[in-house]
Amino acid sequence: MPTSLVITVLVLFLNVASQTSEALDPFACDPKDGMSRNFTFCQVNLPTKSRVGDLIGRLTLQEKIGLLVNGAAAVPRLGMKGYEWWSEALHGVSNVGPGTKFGGAFPGATSFPQVITTAASFNATLWEAIGRVVSDEARAMFNGGVAGLTYWSPNVNIFRDPRWGRGQETPGEDPVVAGKYGVSYVRGLQGNDGERLKVAACCKHYTAYDVDNWNGVDRYHFNAKV
After folding, report:
1. CA distances from 39 to 28, 31, 108 (A)
2. How deeply is 61 buried, as exposed, middle or buried, from its count of CB atoms within 10 A (0-12, 13-18, 19+)?
3. Sequence-distant contacts of 176-181: CB under 8 A, at least 24 apart
């Protein structure tokens, strides 16, 4: 993600404290921390754009870079804790990444059919409804302290070859269907409130990434000629 988008998502999440239980510590702008009162980016009554600009202006280049990796580094001088970006929810909240943990009060989550099958319905209302249920469960897990609020979903790569092992998690080979699916599922995940994200969707993967170990060429090193 570009740094500015990362910061925007972080600032939108600073509103989380007002939506969740008091026992859940916020990522930043902790009302118990007197330092937070001095930061413009902690003023929830201000527009998100103003808060983003203030936070970016306070970060050093090294701190910005530290926010771009999976385990985003803490920025103690600004009262910002570390954050694990990696969670996935392609057809339900998954524990495949370190940002989500099943167990205890959350032994699992609803698993909907693989995307290749729900996409075959050509039903955009269904796609959005699934995203809405998934984000309901994601929020519940976040409130329970076992999940984050960012999800690497949906997968909008075009399914060009049946040998690709991730094809079933895509909407298929039609770019139009993939585009409509992506819009609907993201809307279901994120909600419709422009100032607050229910969760944050991050479409994956990189352009034309649909190769898995073909003739010894792995997905990290092949040359994607579009």
Report:
1. 11, 12, 38
2. exposed
3. 177/119, 177/122, 178/119, 180/124, 180/127, 181/115, 181/119, 181/124, 181/127, 181/154, 181/156
Q: Which of 221, 141, 224, 153 is nearest to 187 (CA)?
A: 153
Determine the Cα angle at 195 with ends 136 and 14, to 5°. 80
Q: pLDDT (tens digit, 9 = 90+) per residue, 185-202? A: 999 999 987 668 899 999
State the pTM of this model: 0.81
Using CA atoms, how far residue 100 sits from 17, 83, 110, 203, in Å, is 19, 12, 14, 18
Q: Which CATH number fits domain 86-226: 3.40.50.300, 3.20.20.105, 1.20.1090.10, 3.20.20.300?
A: 3.20.20.300
pLDDT digits (tens, 9 = 90+) for 62-96: 999 998 888 899 999 999 999 888 899 999 999 98
Range(s) within the chain of domains with CATH label 3.20.20.300: 86-226
